[in-house]
From TrEMBL:
Keywords assigned: Transferase
Signal sequence interval, chain numbering: none
InterPro entries: Glyco_trans_4-like_N (IPR028098), Glycosyltransferase_grp1 (IPR050194)
GO molecular function: glycosyltransferase activity
Highest taxon of the lineage: Bacteria
Protein name according to UniProt: Poly(Glycerol-phosphate) alpha-glucosyltransferase
Entries under Gene3D superfamilies matching the protein: Glycogen Phosphorylase B
Glycosyltransferase subfamily 4-like N-terminal domain location: 25-186
Organism: Methylovirgula ligni
Length: 385
């Protein structure tokens, strides 16, 4: 912490997310990482708010000494209506509220808090204004815009984008000026001593959802003759029952012993897989900035990913191979990965780990956030247009 930061008062920061558990997917992972890093950085007291579910009590442990405030949700899971959450947020006497994720009840909570307190309110859409996302469920999103999102966007002092591409999406969809959009990437804690030997394993970890493009990946896997190359594919994740059932049906039709569906993995089991895999694969159609790839890089695992992952430095510096999104392109990249000489893989692994340690380290990004929050608290950004 710098001398100027030591002289600043400690800010009370609310991190608001729809689900206060693993069921929040990558957004919850980003909130956990941010809360931990800010707590370690100092000068800010983070408090996490969200809807509770069956995993909240267990996942609360991941926050360490960071306070978690949660209430049960009601009704459809897609909206995560959590009555009683807004009064708790207001009672917390926050200096700043930071909303992670949109299109759900928490947007109403954020706007209600901002209007009542007139204090800085920051929104991180987490890729949820990507054209692929906004094109799906158009009528539901149209109702959400009219019902509560425009109100929330209007009350925001600042928007946060994970990438420059997302900043353009935010400006286009919300009408927000560029001066009110801050670009700060996600971050991840890198392994201190990543293991070198790896199994011939390609790993996917994340949500089972059409945007992840797993159907094309499975089709490409068969075309790439992965089994003949001695490789296995492991898909670990969770999702809506219909999406999971469709993927499992595809596996059953293929009857390929080299493909395994592991279901959800967390904690040490997840870290063990990341450290054992030779590659992480994510041929996604739409992303904000995927925590799964950053977590893989932190474990010194190179990635096979699409440009939609918004991590061009991975391609530029050699931590990733680009897959494309059609099965033929993915298959070609898989074959290239299978044929990669050991020395070349080691070089990719080293670059991936170095990126996690530098560009995406908790220390580097927490410092950016701390400076931004203090500028918000000082009134540098006006609330609303």
């Amino acid at each position: 912490m710098t001398g100027d930061e030591k002289n600043q008062r400690v800010l009370r920061l609310g991190l608001l997310t729809a689900r206060a558990s693993r069921l929040g997917g990558g957004v919850f992972e980003a909130v956990v990482a941010q809360a931990q890093a800010l707590k370690a950085h100092g000068g800010i007291t983070p408090i996490v708010f969200g809807a509770a579910d069956e995993f909240t009590a267990e996942d609360k442990k991941r926050l360490g000494t960071v306070e978690l405030v949660s209430v049960p949700s009601r009704g459809p899971a897609a909206f995560d209506y959590a009555p009683g959450l807004l009064p708790l947020i207001r009672a917390a006497d926050l200096d700043i509220l930071h909303l992670h994720g949109i299109w759900q009840y928490v947007s109403l909570c954020g706007a209600g808090w901002a209007e009542a307190t007139k204090r800085p309110y920051l929104i991180s859409p987490h890729g949820m204004l990507d054209p692929w996302i906004t094109a799906r469920g158009r009528w539901k999103k149209a109702l959400a815009r009219v019902g509560y999102e425009r109100r929330s966007w209007r009350d925001a002092s600042l928007f946060h984008a994970l990438t420059e591409a997302e900043a353009r999406d935010i400006a286009r969809e919300t009408g927000t000026e560029k001066s009110r959009i801050a670009v700060v990437p996600n971050y991840v804690a890198a392994d201190t001593a990543p293991p070198a030997p790896r199994a011939p394993l390609v790993l996917y970890i994340g949500r089972i959802h059409p945007k992840k493009n797993l159907e094309a990946l499975v089709e490409a896997w068969s075309a790439a003759q992965a089994s003949e190359a001695g490789y296995r594919l492991a898909i670990a994740g969770w999702g809506e029952p219909a999406h999971v059932a469709a993927l499992q049906a595809r596996f059953a039709a293929l009857a390929d012993p080299g493909i395994a569906f592991l279901g959800p993995v967390y904690g040490e089991q997840k870290q063990k897989l990341l450290r054992e895999a030779r590659f992480m694969v994510l041929p996604s159609l739409s992303e904000g900035l995927p925590m799964a790839v950053l977590e893989a890089w932190a474990a010194a695992t190179p990635s096979l990913m699409s440009a939609a992952c918004n991590l061009p430095e991975g391609f530029a510096q050699g931590a990733a191979l680009e897959t494309g999104v059609d099965s033929a392109s993915i298959a070609a990249t898989l074959r290239r990965a299978f044929a990669l000489p050991a020395a070349d893989w080691q070089a990719m692994s080293a670059v991936a780990h170095a990126l996690a340690q530098s560009r995406f380290s908790p220390q580097a990004i927490a410092a950016q956030w701390a400076a931004l929050y203090h500028r918000l608290a000082a009134g540098e950004y006006m609330s609303g247009p």
